[in-house]
Amino acid sequence: MPPLRRILIANRGEIALRVVRACRDLGISPVMVYSEADRDSLPVRLADQALPIGEAPAAKSYLRSDVIIEAAIRAGADAIHPGYGFLAENAAFARATAEAGLVFIGPPPEAMQAVGDKVEARRLMSKHGVPIIPGLTDRAADTTSIAAFARQAGYPIVLKAAAGGGGKGMRVVRAEADLAGALRMARSEAGASFGDDGIYAEKLLEDVRHVEIQILADAHGHAVHLGERECSLQRRHQKLVEEAPSLAVTPELRRRMGDLAVQVARVSGYRNAGTVEFLLDREGRPYFMEVNARLQVEHPVTEMVTGLDLVRAQIAIAAGEPLAIRQEDLAPRGWAIECRILAEDPVHGFRPQPGRIRALRLPAGPGIRVDTALQEGDVVSLHYDALIAKLCAWGADRDEAVRRMLRALGEFQVAGIRTTIPFDREVIAGEAFRSGRFDIAWVDSRMDAIRARLLESDDREAERAAVAAAVASFEERSRSAADASRGATPDAWALAGRRAQMQGPAPRRGWARP
Ligand code: MV4
After folding, report:
1. 158 Cβ closer than 6 Å to some ligand 1 atom
2. What's the domain count of the chain?
3. 49/43 Cα distance (integer angstroms)
């Protein structure tokens, strides 16, 4: 297969920029598509070509597969990279891309479908010796089979959508009396969300961590795993902090889970980059949960501890190149942590913070990587995901990664909207994160305490800002009075410079340092 020369990127924001950069590094020409809201965005500016595909709502732009494929043909692209979200795990889009004579940079549609149906996937994995969460391997016709399973396994159980994933349509049932109602609700929710109301049941696992394994599989039957990512720190299925490796994973467990993940890839006919999600119980037993058939948001932490470029690997695999990596050469080096920076206000229930970025200072320096498409003046729109940046810190060990992350969070300033940066500071500096004693329920269980601490530092910052503003205004007035008596007319720049010399930048709400 010939190498790829031009790639259309069917996405936006930081991940579109990530793929533009990978293309540049490979000497491939990047082509962007963009909605009306993203015309002036950084990935659009940095691409060789950019084609408009519609209005801001995703349904009128980034989800229009026919328009995007047409744009790819018109631009002379030979492949499409879907990023994550939008059309990334849409088997019909992958198929239509191939039918248009273009390479889809992702798994084959058949593999997507094999892992997309959770019940089919459970049956397949169970057949091949991959441990699954105890539960049904058939869709439930009514409450009978579920009730029988629950009586034998004990409550609580959880109802899940066969077509689901990522926590959508999940329902915990704590007693048989609640089963019929919960099943009805789960069914209608699944039907409305996925157009498929199939439901099955599992035993509810508690005190568990979410640990996932990154895999790469080429078109020549060779697959490797790149170790794990710890993703337990999340809120309502939105991951907030990820790290690689995981404190809960020993080298033996890494080998074991890695082998399982490679086995999952093999039996499902998987190709390209993918992630196998596990729940890990306190005894260190992994349970297969699902496969994410795409590049993931948190892929940079794996890149930092392996030294690999995952987007480059995706492109090479899609071009038919054999994987040039041997499993025995792979081991995590050092430690990497990612904080997802969201345009949400952590003090007020993570409510969305749309608006214009008035000023931006990005952290940098040793061990720091920032993935963002944000530029000063950009508008964060309610039409899209709240993820505005990913801040990653690498260290030779976990302590160094933590210290660098705290340093970088202190450097990071976004003016104009509130972000989750203060929340990240609380979590990373906290005892639970330092000691590694957290599970998937930790953020929810500690949210009240975290919010109280954020409010406290918010108040302190507001107080400081008010005092500093009063001092600055007083200084300015006495200064201009003195200048006026000498016949000088100080302009705004001179005033600002003088103020900066005396006390640093004018403090503003939302510009707090730790
Ligand atoms: C579970 C579970 C406990 N027991 N299944 C949430 C996302 C989807 N992938 C499956 N999820 C869960 N399935 C059983 N049998 C707990 C979760 C879960 C979860 C899993 C990973 C990361 C965060 C989570 C948050 C809440 C619930």
Report:
1. yes
2. 5
3. 10
- Closest ligand 1 atom to residue 203 Cα is 15
Q: Is the peptide bond before 245 cis (omega within 30 degrees of 0)?
A: yes
pLDDT digits (tens, 9 = 90+) for 237-269: 999 999 999 999 999 999 999 999 999 999 999
Write the DSSP assignment of 440-500 as a string of letters.
Answer: TTHHHHHHHHHHHHHHHHHHHHHHHHHHHHHHHHHHHHHHHHHHHHHT----HHHHHHHHH
CA-closest residue to ligand 1 atom 9 = 166
Give the residue whose CA is nearest to atom 5 of ligand 1. Answer: 204
294 carries an active-site annotation: yes
The alpha carbon of 167 and the centre of ligand 1 are apart by a number of angstroms equal to 6
Q: Is the preceding omega at residue 134 within 30 degrees of 0, hence cis? A: no
249 plus 281 within the same structural domain: yes
Ligand 1 pocket residue status of 166, Cβ below 6 Å: yes
**Same-domain status, 156 and 216:** no
CA of 16 to the centre of ligand 1 (A): 29
Nearest to 254 by CA among 230, 222, 220: 230
Give residue-wise pLDDT tens across range 36-53: 999 999 999 999 999 999
* Mutate which of 210, 235, 275, 298 for ligand 1 pocket (most atoms within 8 A of beta carbon): 210
Q: What are 292's strand-pairing partners? A: 275
Residue range(s) defining the domain that contains residue 290 = 208-333
**Of 187, 229, 235, 294, which residue is the catalytic one?**
294
Cα-to-centroid distance, 197 and ligand 1 (Å): 19
Q: Do 327 and 412 share a domain, yes or no?
A: no
Whether 440 lines ligand 1, by a CB cut-off of 6 Å, is: yes
Residues 6+ apart with CB under 8 A from 68: 8, 10, 33, 53, 62, 80, 87
Residue 210 in contact with ligand 1 by CB distance below 6 A: yes
Per DSSP (E only), the strands in 122-180 are 157-161, 171-173
What is the position in ligand 1's atom list of the atom closest to the CA of 440?
A: 23
Q: Is 228 in the pocket of ligand 1 (CB under 6 A)?
A: no
Alpha helices in 319-414 (DSSP H): 398-411
- Assess contact for 463 and 507: CB atoms under 8 A: no
Q: Are residues 322 and 350 in the same domain?
A: no
Tell me, using a 6 A CB cutoff, whether residue 237 lines ligand 1. Answer: yes
Residues 334 and 396 sit within 8 Å (Cβ to Cβ): yes
Ligand 1 neighbour 136 (Cβ under 6 A): no
Q: Is residue 119 part of a domain?
A: no
Sequence letter at residue 3: P
pTM: 0.90
User: Consecutive 10-residue runs of the chain (514 residues): their mean pLDDT?
Assistant: 92 98 98 98 98 98 98 98 97 98 98 94 96 96 94 97 83 96 93 92 97 98 98 96 98 98 97 98 97 97 98 98 95 97 96 97 98 97 97 98 98 97 97 97 96 87 77 76 55 41 40 38
